[in-house]
Amino acid sequence: MALLEGLASIHPDIHTREYWEYCGKKELRFQKCGGCGAFRFPPLTGCRECGSTDVSWVAVAGRGRVFSYTVVHHPAIPEVREHVPYPVVVVEFDDAPGVRLISNVLDISYDEVEIGMELDLVWDEPSPGVVLPRFKKV
Ligand SMILES: [Zn+2]
Hints:
This protein is mostly beta strands. It has one domain (about 15-135). Helices cover about 5% and strands about 40% of the residues.
């Protein structure tokens, strides 16, 4: 059974709705400011750099690398007991500088994850209609 299979749910708000709609179409897109060109994530109405509300949603290729990570040892909910320990990674992208996405690396042991490890995007659907960007080691 995959991590959070049957348990994952998303609760979009006014800022994140578009992000999750793109994920549902298996498109990883991040906001890019029309004023200064800065990427931002999580999604916000205005740019943190220049204040502009002019924004476009730019697709990334899906190649990233581990910026940082942690390893979950304690099963916060009983349903993940069989999965601990598992890594949680912070992913950065060459084609969206400044974006750091928290996700998981699939099919890897927690002790194989390293900072700088190259990752490829994979789309995971742990619950019906819940499409999450997750990663595999290149
Ligand atoms: Zn800006």
